[in-house]
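Sample 3 of the quickstart, ligand adenosine monophosphate:
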Amino acid sequence: MRRLADVLEQVSGTASKLQKIDHLAAYLQTLGDDDLRIACTYLTGAPFPAGDARALNVGWSALLDALREVSGASDDDLDRSYLKYGDLGSVAGELLTQKVRLPLFPQVLTLRAVQEIFSRLAASSGKGSRQGKLAAMRTVFENADPLEAKYLARIITSDMRVGLKEGLLEEAIAKAFAQPAADVRRANMLMSDIGAVAVLARQGRLGEAALRLFSPFRFMLADTIFTAAEAFDPVRGEDKGSPPPTAVLVEEKYDGVRAQVHFDGTRLAIFSRTLDEITPSFPDLHADLRALANRYILDGEIVAWRDGRAIPFTQLQQRLRRKDPTALIADIPVVLFVFDLLHLNGEDLLDHPLADRRRALDALHFGSVVRPSEATVASAPEDLDVRFRDARLHGNEGLVIKRREGHYQPGKRGRQWVKWKEELATLDVVVVAAEQGHGKRAGVLSDVTFAVRSDGELTPVGKAYSGLTDSEIASLTEWFRAHTVVDRGRVKIVEPKIVLEVAFDAVTRSPRHASGYALRFPRIKRIRDDKTPEEINTVDDVARLFAHQGSSRGGSSPKLVAPRATERGARR
Ligand code: AMP
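Result:
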C-alpha cells in the first residue's frame, strides 16, 4: 500500500500527463497479477471494480470516529483540518502524524490485506454492523502511516483527487505492457474492470476481452448542446477533419431511469445507471423482455407512462423506493423505450455503426410495455426544432441526437450522442453545505450551497433555497444531520454526496466564489440519486455556458431565456 501511496503522490505532484503515465507504468510493471488487479482498481479511486456490485457502505461518521480514536484528535482539530483541506484524505494524513492508539498485532498493509478488510466491510451490513465497520476502520488507521491513510481514506470515500482519469491509467497499462492503447481502452469498455484488463494486457490476451452477460458495463452518455446547429458540428477531437454529418438520428429524451437489460434465454437482469440490479422493481416489464429475443443486451430508458405521455418522474421514483412495487403497478405504469442493442444471439454489436444496431433493434419482437424508442433522421437544424417541440408536447425533456456512424462507447460522454434539453440549461452539482432556512423552514436544513468539479476539487458556484418538496427537504435534513463533517451551528458542512440538478436564469461572473462564476436564481429541479459526485458538471462546463449565453442570444444579453412558467409547471 505504501508503494501505491508513493506513486499517487508522484502522480498528483506533476501536471505533466507523460510523467504521470511514466510513474504509473513503472510501478505497474513491478506487480504480480493479484497486486496488479487490486492496484489498478485503487488507482481509479474505487475499492471495487466498476462492474462489481459490492459497496463498502462506510459512512463518513464511522471513518471520522476511527480517525479521532486513533489520532486522539479533538473535534476542533478535525474541523480545523477539514476546513483547511476540504478533503478527508488530507485530514487523515495530517491527523495521523500522531497516534494515541497503536495496533495490538501490527500488520503490514499489503494490497491484499487492504482488499481483505474491504471485503469484510462490504459483507457486513444491517443492524449492529456499525461497530464492526468502526473496528475495521480502526485497524486500517492504526496500521497505516500518514501517507497510506491519506490515500486509503480517499479510496474508501471514492474520491481520489489526483488528476488521474481512467483514460490515463489505460495509457499507463498500454505503456507498461507494450500493448496498443486502443486495445486497452476497448477491453476496459467491454469489461468495466480495469484490473482484469491490466492482467490481460500483461499476458498479451487483450483480444479475448468481450462483453459478459450479467456483468453490467457503463452506459454511453451524451454531451450537452445549447443550439440545434451544434448537433451538426464535426465531432471535435475524436474525428478530426471529418466533414459535418449530412444526417443524424433523433430521439426524444425520455425522463426516466436508464436501464441495461441482459437476457440469456433464462435469466433476466435489469441494471441501473449505477450498475445496480433493479430487476424486481419492474416485474411488469419481464414478460415483454423475455419475448424480445433469445439472448441479448440492450440499453434504454424506463419511463412512467400513461396514455401516450410521460407522467412525472417523481411518481417513478416512488416505485423505485418500494421493495415490493406490486401495489403501485396499476397506478404508475411504466414503459421501457429501447434505444440501443449491444449484443444479440452471441454477437457483440458495440463496434457496429448505430445505423446497423438500430436496424437489428427494430427487428426485435417488441410488446406493449417494451417498445423501440421513436427514432427519425434529421438533415438540418430546422428539423430538430420541430422534433424538440413535439418532444416537449409528449412530456419529454428534449432530444438526444446521435451520429448514425458512431460506435457504442461505454462510459463515454462525447459528441457522438448529444442532448438538447430545453432552452434553459441545467447543471448537475453536489451539495457541500446545508443551512437552516427561515420562517416555516427554520427547523430544517433547506438552504444548500452546491459545487461543481474543477481538477478533482469541488468549487462552489451557488446556493439554492427552492425547488424541493417538504418531504424531500425533511429527508435531506435528516441525511445532512447524519453526514455533517463540520458543524458551524446554522451551517453544516456536509459530505459531498448529494447530487442535485439545478436550473437557473443565467451564469454570472462572481468574485465571491473560487470558481469565478455564480448562478443567478438557482432552483433545484431534482435530486439525482442516479448520479455520483464524480459525474457532476465541471467549472469548464460553467465557463462554456457563460460564453454561450452571450453568443447564442445575439451577443448582447448575458441572460438565458427562462422557460415559461406554464412550461415549467407542465414538466413536473
Ligand atoms: P442527463 O441524465 O441529463 O445527463 O442526460 C442523459 C440521459 O438521458 C441518459 O443517461 C439517459 O438516461 C437519458 N436518455 C433519455 N432518452 C434517451 C435517448 N433516447 N437516448 C439516450 N439517452 C436517453
